[in-house]
Amino acid sequence: MRTDMLIDGEWIAGSGDAFTSVNPATGEVLAELREANEADVDAAVQAAARAFASPEWSGLLPAARAKLLLRVADLLEEHADEIAALETRDQGQPLNVSAGFSVPNAVEHFRYYAGWVTKITGVTAPLSIPDVDYRSRREPLGVCGLITPWNFPLMILVWKLAPALATGNTVVIKPAEQTPLSTLRLAELIEEAGVPAGVVNVVTGGPEAGKALVRHPLVKKISFTGSTAVGREIGAECGRTLKKVSLELGGKAPSVIAADADIDAAVQGNLLGGLLNSGQVCAAYTRFYVDAKRHDEFAEKLAGAAGSLRLGNGLDPEVHLGPLVSAEQVAQAAHYVALGKEEGAELLTGGNRPDGDLANGFFYEPTVFAGVKQGMRIAREEIFGPVLSVMPYEEPEELVQLANDSEYGLAAAVWSRDIGTANRLAHQVKAGTVWINMMQGLDAGAAWGGMKSSGIGREMGWEAIEAYTEVKSIWTSLV
């Protein structure tokens, strides 16, 4: 497969230093790539700007643009097995995640936004001014910079790319340096689908390439998914230059297990919701508030289920959990486990790196702490690994305060047999998404994004159409 950058329809090696993409399950080097320098980023942005102004793209009829997106979806589906395996090798997620969730979700998004292309409308409105006709229209922004994370490289890219193209923008993509390969393979399919040169460009590299993209004066919007710390820096830079910006950032999702909850269903749902992709999910359920009378039962069942999960190379269909993406993530998980022990939490299972056949990969055992207190760092800080905290509560009235006592507000879960109780809690918790009696669900039609330090703006649904367009008002004198 290609490992060069795609700029203006040409595959270019780039001018910067070499870096490698590594299989986190084995430590094997998968590919060598080049860091994009400022000149590479500028070339990609200039190409996108030319393509945006070109009649070949800007003059494309909506039905023709929709057809291109549908063709990309078809090609992605035709190559689904290949791309799922590539995602598993590059990121580590098991095939049941990459093939069963990530790639199908990406296909769904291209088809969903292909359907929107012919339905993006303005409005007419009566004004209190005589002899004037007023209407509005939605227009594309121009060049959009898409900066994507390493936990779901293909899927999260498509959340941004599909609506950006559906609305007529052009893009420069900067994938995470840890996991660039599925992005480059998708770029090949986009070329094959017949998308004009320069509409989609890909530059590879780390933070410096991202900074150059954010600062470029011809970029009209940045969409970033990643850490809250980096998101704040991007938001500040976009504020200085008045770029539009969407930020989907960190999370520390609370999962509230009411006294009347079905404990076995809650254990199963929270196990999956907490350890999907080895906990490398912004919306992972990581702090569980359980009625004190049922705390021990829930914690013991959760720990037993977590301890029974099989770790291994994600290409093995029998594996439940793959590796973390890098040695840095392993070190971070180990750091927080040590903190949990020091702060007095009870370690029920896990807390170590496995040895033997898995020693060469970036594996970490699924870990469950019980008796966690609200002020402990494992309960407050994003770990982004397979470390779960079970916390007892005494009175139902304190649940909302406990759940909202966090800088984050991306997602939350509520478990209760009482639909009234569940919905009241869902309304009161400050989170962009709340799931009731279920693990995380995502759909192209459902808006996605965070509150508080979990971000600005929304992806998916009509909200993404709004995010990649601006409204123009047109007044016409009737006299």
UniProtKB/TrEMBL annotation:
MF (Gene Ontology): oxidoreductase activity, acting on the aldehyde or oxo group of donors, NAD or NADP as acceptor
Keywords assigned: Oxidoreductase
Statement: the UniProt record of this protein carries the keyword Oxidoreductase: yes
Entry-linked Gene3D superfamilies: Aldehyde Dehydrogenase, Chain A, domain 1, Aldehyde Dehydrogenase, Chain A, domain 2
PROSITE patterns in UniProt: ALDEHYDE_DEHYDR_CYS (PS00070), ALDEHYDE_DEHYDR_GLU (PS00687)
Top-level division of the source organism's lineage: Bacteria
Residues at the active site: 248
Residue ranges annotated for the Aldehyde dehydrogenase domain, each copy included: 11-474
SUPFAM superfamilies named among the record's database cross-references: ALDH-like
Alphabetical list of InterPro entries matching this protein: Ald_DH/histidinol_DH (IPR016161), Ald_DH_C (IPR016163), Ald_DH_CS_CYS (IPR016160), Ald_DH_CS_GLU (IPR029510), Ald_DH_N (IPR016162), Aldehyde_DH_dom (IPR015590)
Family per similarity comment: Belongs to the aldehyde dehydrogenase family.
Protein name, as recorded: Aldehyde dehydrogenase family protein
